[in-house]
Amino acid sequence: MKYILVIFIICLAGFIFWIYRAGFLRVYEYMRADVYIGEYHFVVDVADSDAKRALGLSGRKELATDGGMIFTFLEKRTRSFWMKDMLIPIDIVWIEDGKIVGIEHSVVPEPDALLF
Question: Is the pTM of this model over 0.70?
Fold first, then answer.
């Protein structure tokens, strides 16, 4: 019985380690950046990896009026976004080559819906 318990604990530790390595238990630290749009100044979190972009603003109950998140990509192409586990509506500003190319105001999260 003692050996079964030891084997169970080892397997459980291995499983927890695998989940952590796969990214399921991570809380990501975001770099912060200053973004200026006209006369407005925003301090935003930078989502610069697939894992950070997937997490996005999920679970946040509020967002400062001068806060936000910027999603950065290396290549230009049409992107799809989802608002998984989003709790608040957000404004989305589309930027290309340093210029605003679109704005969506007060986008309300829909559970598991693909956005754009």
Answer: no
